[in-house]
Amino acid sequence: MSPLAREPPLMSRTLRAVVGFVLILVEAVIVRGWRFPSTPLPSPTTTVSERSADRPVASASVRTKQAVSSGGRAVPRKVRGSEKIDWKQLDFPRLTREVEALRSLRFMRPVPCGYKTPAQVRAYLRRELDRETDWAATDAMLLQFGFIPRKFPLKRFMIEFYTEQVAGYYDPDTGRFNMTDAVSDDPSMAAVTGMGFQSAVTDSMVIHEMDHALQDQYFNLHALEHGCEGHSDRSLATTALIEGDATLVMMDALYKSLGLPASSRPPLSTLMHDNTVLQGGGPVFQRAPLYIRSCALFPYIAGACFVDYWRRRGGWKAVNRIWHHPPRSTRVILHPETWHYPSSPLLTVRLPPQGTLCAAEGMRQEVERTVSQDSLGEEQIRLLLEQWLPQMPPQERNAICSGWRADSFRIFSHGPRRHMVWESAWSSAVAARRFASAVATVLEVSHHVHLQASTGPRSTLEEWHSPRLQMKRQGNRVLILEGLPDRHAVRAFKVVLGVRT
Fold this sequence. Notes:
Layout: H1 22-30, H2 48-51, E1 76-79, E2 82-85, H3 92-103, E3 113-116, H4 118-132, H5 135-144, H6 154-163, E4 168-171, E5 176-180, E6 183-184, H7 187-194, H8 198-219, H9 221-225, H10 232-257, H11 268-272, H12 283-287, H13 290-324, H14 330-334, H15 356-360, E7 368-374, H16 377-388, H17 394-401, E8 404-414, E9 417-426, H18 429-447, E10 452-455, E11 461-466, E12 469-474, E13 477-482, H19 486-497
Parallel strand pairs: 3-5
Antiparallel strand pairs: 1-2, 2-6, 4-5, 7-8, 8-9, 9-13, 10-11, 11-12, 12-13
Helix pairs in contact: 1-7, 3-8, 8-10, 10-13, 13-16, 16-17
């Protein structure tokens, strides 16, 4: 795998192994009252084991050898004001049965469970992040679009970000569920613990990871990743399917454990538009830039909305069909009704071969070097507008981005300078015009320039330009060039716009 084919860290396989982010969703249910107001929480002193003691439970197809039947609850212990989960209290046979019943699938083989020290977990995360991530390319992309500030310590921060609240993870390489005695200072855990619901929370977190094991046995998580290399938008959509499935099962288990009827759960789409969700998490999560926080939660929240949409229409059988034909873009995740098989082909955006732009500019093409090449997709373009135009109403932002159909960018260097070419395709000329108008404002704000707008003899052509920054809309296509001198931009536009399928 070439360096540029590796995924940015926010879409990595490591993200869907770590359970820490689910605490934010759990807190939304228990602490922030994300349920119908008329449905109060039951007393936390009544456990699910007590409520279901007289009900028969279907036998599980497997038993984990490491299961400990000791009353069935993992109780976080107080350690210097933090919460420490005692995994040895867990009743894995019961949780295995519950996962099978909730997901309507039986395990094909046992899922080994083991314990890792916090140091071993951190080492594992570092190895996975380094193996999957081209840090230079990712840093270049995030800087180019202004998602992170300059001199931001990306690698160091992401390792700290992932290890902040790790409690356990499923490893697809080994098919093993690993737990750790990590201590969490996460206020989400402290909040639910203070209300007495820590047992329900811990069980839900384990069920989330055990569902990943079911996914791997039936749908092969590694095979699902094939074709996502170098396409962060597609990778984010795949991750949303994986995490959305597990999150929906986890939410079902949580409501059941809390004694809340299924009718008390509002549509998951209401949680997706609840900005207070981003206010949860630990101190590192709160220090993270908007882009990193949003991309971390997107697979869990938007993914759960997507899976919930199809489960309501065809049960888990409908969801299983999607696993065999996973969504190829975040547009499908954000608009579940657009998924169907066989899927309609995406509009194609093809950038010219390496060296072509420098040749168009009259420079020696052999010194042109691609630094990063990828696509943003609907979700990351939405984050771009939110990052730079926070005053724009969310409804307007979503309406603009819903017209996305394809995009591709390349960041390349020529000597000490960096240049970028970014082309996008939209559902119509009107949709392209709305995006171009919005992104022109983004460019002016982020680059501290004024773009002069001009319209061609036909309304199908519009241009915005300033020194070393040009944008052109032609029909339903929008092309942005950054870093090329004005005198060579015309030739560069001709080269790029001449590449069509």
